[in-house]
Amino acid sequence: MLGKLLKYELKATSRSFLPFLGAILALSVINKLSTALISGNSWIFDLPVFLLTFLYIAMIMAASIFCIILTVQRFYKGLLGREGYLMFTLPVTAAENILSKGIASLIWILMTVLTTFLSICVFLPGTEALTLIREGWGPIVLEIQRDTGLDVNFLLPFMLLLSLLGCCSFVMELYAAMSIGQLFNSHRLLCSFGAYLGICVGEQIFATILMNLIVGPLLFHFYPESKAMMFDNHMIGQALNCILWFALVLEILSGVTCFLISRGILSRRLNLE
User: Fold this and answer.
1) Packed helices 43-75 and 2-37: angle between N→C axes, nearest 10 degrees
2) Which residue ranges in the chain fall short of pLDDT 70?
3) What is the reported pLDDT for 228?
4) 119 and 57 in contact (C-beta within 8 Å)?
5) Does residue 63 contact residue 112 with C-beta atoms inside 8 Å?
6) Which of 73, 93, 187, 199 is deepest in the core (most CB within 10 A)?
7) How far apart are CA 60 and CA 62, in angstroms?
8) What is the separation of C-alpha 69 from the centre of its chain, rounded to a whole number of angstroms?
9) Residue-level pLDDT at 134
Protein backbone atom coordinates (compact mmCIF):
# COMPACT_ATOMS: atom_id res chain seq x y z
CA MET A 1 0.00 0.00 0.00
CA LEU A 2 2.96 2.29 0.61
CA GLY A 3 3.83 2.08 -3.08
CA LYS A 4 0.33 3.22 -4.10
CA LEU A 5 0.43 6.11 -1.63
CA LEU A 6 3.85 7.15 -2.90
CA LYS A 7 2.69 6.97 -6.52
CA TYR A 8 -0.29 9.19 -5.74
CA GLU A 9 1.90 11.65 -3.81
CA LEU A 10 4.47 11.93 -6.60
CA LYS A 11 1.73 12.41 -9.18
CA ALA A 12 0.11 15.16 -7.12
CA THR A 13 3.35 17.02 -6.41
CA SER A 14 4.79 16.65 -9.92
CA ARG A 15 2.23 19.17 -11.21
CA SER A 16 4.00 21.83 -9.13
CA PHE A 17 7.60 20.67 -9.22
CA LEU A 18 8.18 19.65 -12.84
CA PRO A 19 7.36 23.07 -14.38
CA PHE A 20 9.48 24.73 -11.71
CA LEU A 21 12.51 22.52 -12.36
CA GLY A 22 11.99 22.81 -16.11
CA ALA A 23 12.06 26.60 -15.78
CA ILE A 24 15.43 26.44 -14.01
CA LEU A 25 16.95 24.34 -16.79
CA ALA A 26 15.42 26.54 -19.48
CA LEU A 27 16.79 29.69 -17.84
CA SER A 28 20.27 28.16 -17.62
CA VAL A 29 20.21 27.38 -21.35
CA ILE A 30 18.89 30.85 -22.21
CA ASN A 31 21.57 32.44 -20.04
CA LYS A 32 24.28 30.38 -21.71
CA LEU A 33 23.11 31.34 -25.18
CA SER A 34 22.62 35.01 -24.33
CA THR A 35 26.06 35.22 -22.72
CA ALA A 36 27.70 33.63 -25.76
CA LEU A 37 25.83 35.66 -28.36
CA ILE A 38 25.28 39.19 -27.07
CA SER A 39 27.32 39.69 -23.90
CA GLY A 40 30.19 42.18 -24.16
CA ASN A 41 28.92 44.09 -27.19
CA SER A 42 27.69 47.03 -25.13
CA TRP A 43 25.98 47.79 -21.84
CA ILE A 44 22.62 47.74 -23.64
CA PHE A 45 23.12 44.06 -24.45
CA ASP A 46 24.73 43.26 -21.09
CA LEU A 47 21.66 44.47 -19.20
CA PRO A 48 19.34 41.66 -20.43
CA VAL A 49 22.08 39.13 -19.66
CA PHE A 50 22.37 40.52 -16.14
CA LEU A 51 18.60 40.39 -15.64
CA LEU A 52 18.42 36.81 -16.91
CA THR A 53 21.26 35.78 -14.61
CA PHE A 54 19.57 37.47 -11.66
CA LEU A 55 16.30 35.69 -12.49
CA TYR A 56 18.13 32.35 -12.74
CA ILE A 57 19.77 32.82 -9.33
CA ALA A 58 16.43 33.88 -7.85
CA MET A 59 14.80 30.74 -9.27
CA ILE A 60 17.44 28.53 -7.64
CA MET A 61 16.92 30.24 -4.29
CA ALA A 62 13.14 30.01 -4.69
CA ALA A 63 13.42 26.29 -5.49
CA SER A 64 14.84 25.48 -2.04
CA ILE A 65 12.16 27.56 -0.34
CA PHE A 66 9.49 25.95 -2.53
CA CYS A 67 10.65 22.48 -1.43
CA ILE A 68 10.15 23.40 2.22
CA ILE A 69 6.77 25.04 1.60
CA LEU A 70 5.44 22.08 -0.38
CA THR A 71 6.79 19.62 2.21
CA VAL A 72 4.89 21.43 4.94
CA GLN A 73 1.76 21.96 2.83
CA ARG A 74 1.43 18.36 1.65
CA PHE A 75 1.77 16.96 5.18
CA TYR A 76 -0.38 19.55 6.90
CA LYS A 77 -3.24 19.60 4.41
CA GLY A 78 -3.02 15.93 3.47
CA LEU A 79 -2.91 14.43 6.96
CA LEU A 80 -3.86 17.14 9.45
CA GLY A 81 -6.44 19.08 7.44
CA ARG A 82 -9.72 18.08 5.85
CA GLU A 83 -8.02 15.63 3.49
CA GLY A 84 -6.96 13.73 6.60
CA TYR A 85 -10.51 12.46 7.05
CA LEU A 86 -10.10 10.58 3.75
CA MET A 87 -6.49 9.50 4.23
CA PHE A 88 -7.10 7.98 7.65
CA THR A 89 -10.14 6.03 6.47
CA LEU A 90 -7.94 4.13 4.01
CA PRO A 91 -6.61 0.71 5.10
CA VAL A 92 -3.13 2.09 5.75
CA THR A 93 -1.17 2.80 8.91
CA ALA A 94 -0.05 6.21 10.12
CA ALA A 95 3.53 5.14 9.43
CA GLU A 96 2.73 4.49 5.77
CA ASN A 97 1.06 7.88 5.42
CA ILE A 98 4.08 9.60 6.96
CA LEU A 99 6.59 7.63 4.89
CA SER A 100 4.77 8.29 1.62
CA LYS A 101 4.87 12.04 2.26
CA GLY A 102 8.45 11.92 3.47
CA ILE A 103 9.84 9.83 0.60
CA ALA A 104 8.09 12.02 -1.98
CA SER A 105 9.51 15.17 -0.37
CA LEU A 106 12.99 13.65 -0.29
CA ILE A 107 12.75 12.68 -3.97
CA TRP A 108 11.84 16.24 -4.95
CA ILE A 109 14.63 17.68 -2.79
CA LEU A 110 17.13 15.42 -4.57
CA MET A 111 15.61 16.30 -7.95
CA THR A 112 15.97 20.00 -7.12
CA VAL A 113 19.62 19.54 -6.15
CA LEU A 114 20.31 17.50 -9.30
CA THR A 115 18.54 20.05 -11.52
CA THR A 116 20.49 22.89 -9.92
CA PHE A 117 23.77 21.02 -10.46
CA LEU A 118 22.96 20.31 -14.10
CA SER A 119 21.96 23.92 -14.70
CA ILE A 120 25.22 25.15 -13.18
CA CYS A 121 27.16 22.78 -15.43
CA VAL A 122 25.59 24.54 -18.39
CA PHE A 123 27.32 27.74 -17.25
CA LEU A 124 30.78 26.17 -17.33
CA PRO A 125 32.82 27.86 -20.05
CA GLY A 126 33.78 24.60 -21.77
CA THR A 127 35.88 21.49 -21.59
CA GLU A 128 38.92 23.55 -20.56
CA ALA A 129 37.38 24.28 -17.15
CA LEU A 130 36.52 20.63 -16.62
CA THR A 131 40.06 19.65 -17.58
CA LEU A 132 41.55 22.13 -15.11
CA ILE A 133 39.29 20.85 -12.33
CA ARG A 134 40.14 17.23 -13.10
CA GLU A 135 43.90 17.92 -13.25
CA GLY A 136 43.90 20.00 -10.09
CA TRP A 137 41.81 17.55 -8.06
CA GLY A 138 44.55 14.91 -7.73
CA PRO A 139 47.22 17.14 -6.11
CA ILE A 140 44.60 18.65 -3.74
CA VAL A 141 43.51 15.17 -2.59
CA LEU A 142 47.12 14.06 -2.00
CA GLU A 143 47.87 17.24 -0.05
CA ILE A 144 44.86 16.79 2.24
CA GLN A 145 45.60 13.12 2.82
CA ARG A 146 49.26 13.80 3.61
CA ASP A 147 48.53 16.65 6.04
CA THR A 148 45.43 15.35 7.82
CA GLY A 149 45.35 11.61 7.19
CA LEU A 150 41.79 11.87 5.84
CA ASP A 151 40.81 9.71 2.88
CA VAL A 152 39.13 12.31 0.67
CA ASN A 153 37.86 9.69 -1.79
CA PHE A 154 35.92 8.18 1.14
CA LEU A 155 35.08 11.53 2.71
CA LEU A 156 33.11 12.86 -0.27
CA PRO A 157 30.65 9.91 -0.48
CA PHE A 158 30.40 10.06 3.31
CA MET A 159 29.48 13.76 3.15
CA LEU A 160 26.85 13.01 0.49
CA LEU A 161 25.38 10.30 2.75
CA LEU A 162 25.44 12.70 5.68
CA SER A 163 23.65 15.34 3.59
CA LEU A 164 21.01 12.81 2.55
CA LEU A 165 20.41 11.78 6.15
CA GLY A 166 20.30 15.45 7.10
CA CYS A 167 17.49 16.02 4.57
CA CYS A 168 15.58 13.00 5.93
CA SER A 169 16.03 14.23 9.50
CA PHE A 170 14.91 17.74 8.54
CA VAL A 171 11.71 16.46 6.91
CA MET A 172 10.93 14.25 9.92
CA GLU A 173 11.52 17.20 12.27
CA LEU A 174 8.99 19.25 10.31
CA TYR A 175 6.48 16.40 10.47
CA ALA A 176 7.02 15.93 14.22
CA ALA A 177 6.57 19.66 14.84
CA MET A 178 3.31 19.75 12.86
CA SER A 179 2.09 16.61 14.62
CA ILE A 180 2.72 18.26 17.98
CA GLY A 181 1.11 21.50 16.80
CA GLN A 182 -2.12 19.78 15.78
CA LEU A 183 -2.66 18.73 19.39
CA PHE A 184 -3.76 22.31 20.09
CA ASN A 185 -7.21 23.52 19.12
CA SER A 186 -6.14 26.98 17.96
CA HIS A 187 -3.05 28.66 16.47
CA ARG A 188 -1.80 25.35 15.18
CA LEU A 189 0.74 26.77 12.77
CA LEU A 190 2.22 28.98 15.46
CA CYS A 191 2.35 26.04 17.87
CA SER A 192 3.99 23.92 15.16
CA PHE A 193 6.63 26.59 14.65
CA GLY A 194 7.25 26.70 18.39
CA ALA A 195 7.49 22.91 18.47
CA TYR A 196 10.04 22.98 15.65
CA LEU A 197 12.17 25.51 17.53
CA GLY A 198 11.91 23.32 20.62
CA ILE A 199 13.03 20.26 18.65
CA CYS A 200 16.02 22.15 17.22
CA VAL A 201 17.06 23.50 20.62
CA GLY A 202 16.63 20.10 22.25
CA GLU A 203 18.68 18.47 19.52
CA GLN A 204 21.51 20.99 19.99
CA ILE A 205 21.52 20.49 23.77
CA PHE A 206 21.52 16.69 23.33
CA ALA A 207 24.36 16.89 20.79
CA THR A 208 26.43 19.14 23.06
CA ILE A 209 25.98 16.80 26.03
CA LEU A 210 26.95 13.74 23.98
CA MET A 211 29.91 15.57 22.49
CA ASN A 212 31.25 16.48 25.93
CA LEU A 213 30.47 13.17 27.60
CA ILE A 214 31.24 10.66 24.85
CA VAL A 215 32.97 12.01 21.75
CA GLY A 216 35.65 14.06 23.53
CA PRO A 217 36.71 11.31 25.99
CA LEU A 218 36.70 8.69 23.21
CA LEU A 219 38.90 10.86 21.02
CA PHE A 220 41.42 11.37 23.81
CA HIS A 221 41.27 7.68 24.71
CA PHE A 222 42.09 6.40 21.22
CA TYR A 223 44.41 9.30 20.40
CA PRO A 224 45.99 10.33 23.73
CA GLU A 225 48.67 12.31 21.92
CA SER A 226 45.92 14.70 20.72
CA LYS A 227 45.91 16.32 24.19
CA ALA A 228 49.36 17.69 23.55
CA MET A 229 49.00 18.10 19.75
CA MET A 230 45.52 19.46 19.34
CA PHE A 231 46.62 21.91 16.67
CA ASP A 232 48.58 19.37 14.66
CA ASN A 233 46.97 18.85 11.23
CA HIS A 234 46.86 15.07 11.64
CA MET A 235 45.12 15.37 15.00
CA ILE A 236 42.62 17.83 13.51
CA GLY A 237 41.90 15.32 10.73
CA GLN A 238 41.25 12.58 13.29
CA ALA A 239 39.00 14.87 15.29
CA LEU A 240 37.07 15.83 12.15
CA ASN A 241 36.62 12.17 11.24
CA CYS A 242 35.26 11.42 14.71
CA ILE A 243 32.89 14.42 14.59
CA LEU A 244 31.54 13.37 11.18
CA TRP A 245 30.71 9.88 12.46
CA PHE A 246 29.06 11.45 15.48
CA ALA A 247 27.00 13.71 13.19
CA LEU A 248 25.93 10.67 11.15
CA VAL A 249 24.67 8.84 14.25
CA LEU A 250 22.98 12.01 15.50
CA GLU A 251 21.09 12.53 12.22
CA ILE A 252 19.86 8.92 12.31
CA LEU A 253 18.72 9.24 15.94
CA SER A 254 16.99 12.56 15.22
CA GLY A 255 15.17 11.26 12.14
CA VAL A 256 14.03 8.03 13.80
CA THR A 257 12.93 9.80 16.98
CA CYS A 258 10.91 12.42 15.10
CA PHE A 259 9.32 9.72 12.93
CA LEU A 260 8.27 7.78 16.04
CA ILE A 261 6.84 10.97 17.58
CA SER A 262 4.78 11.68 14.46
CA ARG A 263 3.57 8.10 14.16
CA GLY A 264 2.63 7.93 17.84
CA ILE A 265 0.66 11.20 17.76
CA LEU A 266 -1.13 10.47 14.48
CA SER A 267 -1.99 6.96 15.65
CA ARG A 268 -3.27 7.84 19.13
CA ARG A 269 -3.83 11.59 19.43
CA LEU A 270 -5.06 12.67 16.01
CA ASN A 271 -7.00 15.94 16.22
CA LEU A 272 -8.19 16.85 12.72
CA GLU A 273 -9.59 20.27 11.84
Assistant:
1) 170
2) 36-46, 123-152, 214-239, 272-273
3) 46
4) no
5) yes
6) 199
7) 5
8) 13
9) 59
